[in-house]
């Protein structure tokens, strides 16, 4: 498709992954060649079910979904079902989607796609297990990769599953570190420093509720549980939505600013999963990352809402005191 950027979205849906998929599927700049699901927030099987629900909601069931790795490279899988609900979408327990294209072999699909598609990028919204496995199997083919944008890590913000570690890289620190050390391209790290500033506040949720329609109802339904978790866990009113920013940044670089550096991921011990960002270049190692530090949260939110609700773009643009 002329002018569109080709992407594979690798994800672990997950409430914020589901919102990120909505944004990607409603963004005309992207041609989603496939969605690969990885273990993370929920077991991979559940992630596939949740992905199909978003595809059904956006009339995109023609996009193939690939079943990926069910366990991290070395660690035991630790899910985030306390945060995202047992079903990964806020305890909604949606009925099983009829139809859709589900195939095995996410790692094979990534490798084959990189070998056949020019200028293909990957937006990774979960642990990097699928990507690490693909890189281990065929490092050469990744020379064809256009860009990798990964929601994960943290530069100066505190962790969300340990004092220093962000969930995606804590679930599979070996996978994350392998990708950062072997991709030979810079990973665009959309970490907690920027994603923590992306909050669905009660006012924004009420706006979504009033915009109405199936997509609005889906968002309200899947975020209820998440909002409760944020209050209990972090004393936040509303909920942080990490993954949609990775999609939005891929589309519009002006949303975030950051810097180039060498980054590696701590694989074990008390700081397991921490991203060590050598911002002062102590180690003089080749830079393997673009670390994002600032975000225009308001500009993101207008973009997010106007793409999800294009028919209400003007209402959203003119709303006062909400965004
Ligand atoms: O730390 C936040 C990340 O971990 C998000 O991608 C969320 O979906 C979970 O996967
Ligand atoms: Ca995720």
TrEMBL record:
PANTHER family associated with the record: INOSINE-URIDINE PREFERRING NUCLEOSIDE HYDROLASE (PTHR12304), URIDINE NUCLEOSIDASE (PTHR12304:SF4)
Top EC class of this enzyme: hydrolase
The enzyme's E.C. designation: 3.2.2.1
Domain Inosine/uridine-preferring nucleoside hydrolase: 7-301
UniProt keyword Thylakoid present: no
The protein's name in its UniProt record: Purine nucleosidase
GO MF annotation, one: purine nucleosidase activity
Source organism: Clostridium punense
Keyword ATP-binding in record: no
